[in-house]
Amino acid sequence: MFEHEETVGISAMSCYLPRLRVDLRQWCEWTSHDWDKVSAVTGRAFRMAGPDEDVYTMAATAVLRLILDNGVDPCRIGFLALGTESSTDNALGAVTVRGMIDRELRRRGMPSLPRDVEVPEYKHACLGGMYALQGAARFAALDRNGRQAVVVASDIAEYERGSSGEQTQGAGAVAMLVERSPALLAVDLGRAAGASAYRGPDFRKPAARHRVDGYAAGTQRLSDFPVFSGRYSAAAYLDAVTSAVETLWAADTATPADQLDGIQGLFIHRPYRKLPQQALSFLRVRALAASPARHRELEQLCQGCDIGLDDVLAELRVEPDLFGYVLAGQQAPDPWPATAAVSSHLRGQPAFRAFAQRVLGSGADPLVEVGNLYSASLPAWLAAGIEEAALRGVELAGAPLLAVGYGSGDAALALPVTAVEGWQAAAARIGFRHALDNPVDLDREQYEALHDRREVPGLALHPWEQFTVDRTGTEYGRDFQDLAVDYYAYEY
Asked: By C-alpha distance, which of 122, 124, 302, 272 is closest to 198?
């Protein structure tokens, strides 16, 4: 751990979740899905952005809450970053959020953000928010005036009705205040480790898909449905996450198994409920294989599912070229069949279940109510987990935590974080559970209409203390154009 005066990290977090909610038990009745399976794999519900919301309104609402709830001086902010994969404008990014914040701060008699604030947007699928956090931490560490940075991860995850991803939709935003000598979480930039490799048709949003007949045929305006291949993406996820974490482990003198055992909390990208446990069991088997003193423990696991120890050890050296199979017109096989089999067996062991509950449990339950938030998924889990630890009286100060982000495409980032002394005060102001309050459950007709971009019948939703899309420009003349440019307002 580095000295306190050298630390940089998160001092505050704030969340915004749309109130519109789809109950997955009801969704299963509408779509003839198995509720027991959906609840175990995916969750209980997901949130949807309202007709007058977009990624920028959610981001701005989270940032305004961050400033107001934590007494942030806008004049001290020098960096405002947006992490998202749901941009509706290919020219601008965080400056759109800045525009809303500035106008509302001035209306409240507060100073707006300084003119020299940097306003980048970070985009790499679900990793955009964590890349933005890393960039903000670097800014805070190097800024000669000791200014603060604000990061906001905001996304809308939507899939075509009837697709395998439909139940993993979601929407929301998480804002973070980043500075030196943080009040909540220190981020160890020096130990951060990443991974990246091009995967071709993994999870993609090519612009040209909107011009293909049959794409999003049931909607009345452009929709951000991805092009994805589930099984292929799952292999890419495991490969990238494992590569990033093992690169981090390799820089330490302790064995990978001992490092994993010592983690107090693991927060890993979770597009749905079950995936973090699968990732943890896979990492566990790999860690045991890479720690010779623990091979006896691994051998016992292998015997429990008729897998040879040498087969698992051999897979430590496998570096799969998943995209190579695509180029060859073939379906990529499982690169680690022995490791996967032992991982599956491990998940059924009581000792592993207790371990998984210890490192994955904090904040996991409220997340099953929100769905996939793409770039905001990991920040949301971090916010929910830290808040829950404070509410339960768990002492995290000095305990090693690990945040592992992932973005299809494919890249991963492993960031070691540590709660600082007195972290509970900042955690008490996060307000994740408060952001879940007052949901408005959609019935089937309302859900389908909202999803398909039609007028939603009987929707009783009145925006309150949030930004909304007020109107959209229509001018397309020679001297002035604002065609399709959104204008925003703050609703009280």
From this structure: 124
What's the CA gap between 56 and 127, in Å, rounded? 18
Amino acid in the structure at residue 202: D
Structure tokens at 485: 């440019």
Nearest-angstrom CA–CA distance, 20 and 49: 7
- Residue 301 CA to residue 293 CA, distance in Å, equals 15
Distance of alpha carbon 67 from alpha carbon 82, whole angstroms: 16
Q: Centre a 10 Å sphere on the Cβ of residue 487 and count the other Cβ atoms it contains.
A: 11
Which residues of 244-359 form beta strands (DSSP E)? 265-268
d(CA 276, CA 382): 13
Strand pairing report for 8-16 and 170-180: antiparallel
Residue keyed to tokens 């490192």: 359
Per-10-residue mean pLDDT for the chain, 492 residues long? Answer: 67 98 98 97 97 97 98 98 96 96 98 98 97 98 97 97 95 98 97 96 92 87 87 93 97 96 96 94 98 98 97 96 95 94 98 97 96 98 98 96 94 98 98 96 98 94 95 97 97 94
**Given CA atoms 475, 481, 485, 487 in this order, what sign does their dihedral have?**
negative
Across-strand partners of 419? Answer: 185, 397
Please name which of 80, 90, 148, 152 lies closest in space to residue 120, comparing C-alpha atoms.
Answer: 80
What is the value of pTM for the model shown? 0.96
Which tokens sit at 145? 């005036």
Structure token pair of residue 120: 């980048």
Are 381 and 279 a contacting pair, CB within 8 Å?
no
